[in-house]
Each structure stands twice: as C-alpha cells, then as structure tokens.
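Hey, can you fold this?
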Amino acid sequence: MAVKTLEDLLGEGVEGRTVLVRSDLNVPLDNGTITDPGRIIASAPTISALAEAGAKVIVMAHLGRPVHSGRSAGFAPAGDWDPALSLAPVAAKLGEVLGRNVQLAGDVVGQDALARSEGLTDGDVLLLENIRFDPRETSKDDAEREALAKALVDLVDGDGAFVSDGFGVVHRKQASVYDVAKLLPHYAGNLVAAEVEVLQKLTQDSERPYAVVLGGSKVSDKLAVIEALAPKVDTLVIGGGMYYTFLAAQGISVGNSLCQEEMIGTCKELLERYADVIHIPQDVVIADSFSADAESKTVSVLEIPDGWMGLDIGPQSVKRFAAILSGAKTVFWNGPMGVFEFPKFAAGTKGVAEAIIEATGKGAFSVVGGGDSAAAVRQLGLPEDGFSHISTGGGASLEYLEGKTLPGISALDDQTLEG
C-alpha cells in the first residue's frame, strides 16, 4: 500500500493550512456524561500534533445513530436533531484533554460551520456537530455522499488536507471517511497507522503459538472471523453469550441462555472441523434472571436447569483458559466472557483478561480488539499497559482479520484510489 502518514504531512508543513480530520469520538454517554473517554484520549495526539504545528484543524466525528425518518438527503435542520446525540460534551472533554479551546459548530456544513471555519486562526480546533446529523453521511447513494464530501471540503482552504484518524469507522463507506479522501490530499493519522500496523502483524507476521479469544452475544456476529482465523491459529477460545449455541450444538440443554437456534448446525460443523483448535467452557455461572442482583450459582455445563441462564464462564474454565494462554506468543481478544457490566458476572472476563496480561508480561504480543473488550479493560480496572495494544475499533478490527477490504483504508492508498 502507498499510504502517506501524518508524519509526511507535518514534514510538508501545515502552518496556516486547514486540515480536515476524521476522528472516532463515539463515546458512551449516561445522561450527557461521558462514561468512558477512551476514544477521545486516543484521538487527541493527532489533533494536538496538527494544532501545535500551526494548522487550522476541523474535526469530523459522529455519536450514535441518529434516525432520519422520511427526510430527503440534505442538511438536517437543527430542530430535527436529537439533543442527546449532540457532540457538546465531547467538545468539552476534547478541549480538556488537548489543553486548548475546542469550538463546536452549531451544524455540520451549514452557516455556523462555514462562518467558524472562515474565522479560524493557526492552531485553532473546530469540531463540527455530529456528522451523522446530515443523512448524506451514511447514504448508500454515491452522489449524495459525494455532495456532502464537497460541502465539507468547502470548509477548507485551497491548500487543505484530509487526515483519517477514526479507525473505528474505516470499515464504513461514508462521506467523511471515504469520499472526502477523493477530494483532498489524504494521510493516515497516528491512530489509523498504528492500528493497521498492529493488524498486519496479526495477519502476516504473527509469532506462534497464536491464540484467539472470542466472546460476545451472537455467533452470527463472529462467524466470519471464526472461519477466517480457525485454520490459521493454534487455539481459539470461545466464551460469552455465543458460547451457548455451541453447547446446544452438542445436544446440551442451555435453559434460558442466549441461543441462536438457526446457528446450531453451523456451530456443530465448526466443532467437528476444528476439534483440535476450538476450546469452550466446562462450567458456567448461571442466574435465575438477567439482572445484577439475580440469584446465581456455578454449575457444570451439563447441569444448567430449565428457567436459568448462563451469564459468565465458571472458575474452572477460567483456570483452564489461563493455562492455554500462558504459553501463547500472540493473543487476539475480542468480546467479553460474560455480562461484565454486572459485578456478579464479571469474574470470567476479568480472569481471562488477567491471563492475557500475564502472557504479555512473558513476552507475548497481545491485542484487545476494541468494542466491549476495551470497555471491560477500563471498567474492571485492569492496566491498559498490560496489553501490547488496545484497538479503538472492534468492528473494523474484525473485518480486517476476516480479510475484507476496509473502504476508509483503501481510500488512503494512492495505488488504488479512483477519482
């Protein structure tokens, strides 16, 4: 790939130039309060480097999935926005992390965004309002996305540039991710460049033994990555809600546990084909209801009673998985082992994470594949530096490992970019 980086852009000089930056600032909120600022903290270095070098920085980002019911493509009127999805709290936190004022435009590409962009001075940072408030951002119509991309470029001076630093969205063919890159000189930000380097190491230069730990709720969400990785790795540990479909595939009753019946046949085939690679729990923590204060007990997977549901892997499974992971030289983890949001059902996720940290301490290269896994690391108070790398993009990481082309990465490749 022929991809220029932030270092290349800074080498060319950015003082006085306007730089559009696509960041991933899609952080979780609780009544307007950011509960995990991880993505903001991870995005700050690229923005800071540009501002420190004298660029006028315009940041594009999204929050959640605004609903655009029955509206034609075009700029979304302010009255139709969901205030709960405004980037106002994100702008405040980003300013705190950067140690400089971050303006928030009152729209995406409207009059306020245009006026503020024209008033920027060297080193200023402007955050556009939630890019997904404009329905053209996620449109399947190329012309609609391109129209928004052109409007975004209109905010930039003639010698402007585009920096892609939102790894969590590079698997999306969206206006601010893909189409803008066709209209401006384009560069990979520090975050995107680092993520791609890590994933290339996992796919092209991984040291053996190579272990993968997968969790999460649905087999269907992880099927493609299981099929892509199972033939290439030495160990594939499966936990989380999707595990119960694998149990059902063995003819074991799972009570009220989450189970995708339509995937039972697929799971049975996977267990048969990769019997020497796939490892599944032998004991589980079950509950009489899905709640933090539910009655719970640990049982063998053969003893899940009717009316009960599995919400975590059991201590013997944690011990067994830890032993398997102890000798690994490469570890990729995506998906919690249980409902870690409830303290009573967090021990499995924490135990496996601690085993990965221990393996890392012995020299293993470990990658946390973003999403709920990264959230669990922070929520459970685990040391982030205990892992070699924590990705900011769960979905993007999985699609890369599946072998898919990521539009936001291909758009930066001057050997393949069209237009």
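Oh, and this one too while you're at it.
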Amino acid sequence: MITITVKKRNGSYTEFVSKGHAGYAEAGQDIVCAAVSALIITTVNSLESFTEEKFQAEEKDGFVSIHFHGSQNTDQGKLLMDSLLLGLTEIAHNYNNRYLTVRVKEV
C-alpha cells in the first residue's frame, strides 16, 4: 500500500511524503502505482519549472518527499499541491483506499 502524508500549517504545505508500493499488480503492470508516480513527478517538475517555490525533493525506490522552505507557499505552488492532493484522493477513493491512503495533518 502507498501511504501519503501531507503536512500543512496555516493553509500552506510544509511537507509531502509518499511511502510504499500499491501492490495492485506486478511491477511494471501496476496502474495505481503508475498513476500516483505520474502525478507526483509532474507536480515536482511543475513546482520547479513554473513557480518560485523553495523546496527540496528526494526520491528513492518506493519513497518521495517534498519539503517546503518558508512559511507560505506561492499561489502557484499551493494550486499545484492542491491539484496533486485532489488527484491522489480521487485515486484512493476509486480503489476504496485499498492501495493508497492519503492523510493531511495540520501542524
């Protein structure tokens, strides 16, 4: 199962962490994992290319983290993260939270 934890403070994103594998199908055939990966990779690339957001991203097998620097996200950064969260939440609901869980915590 993929577990995603998102931390927010005063409406701004501070941290995003994705851990694990969906387990929907074998590696290379797992459409849930592919969908989640595509959303996350596109968001990280978009944050880097289209915003002035200050963040650090890390990736390794079954793990992605985004740590935001500063107390407020840019408007564009917040919109991109809101969109990522919407997409991930829809995937989780479509698969009855069986392969993906999304948690948002106010810190």
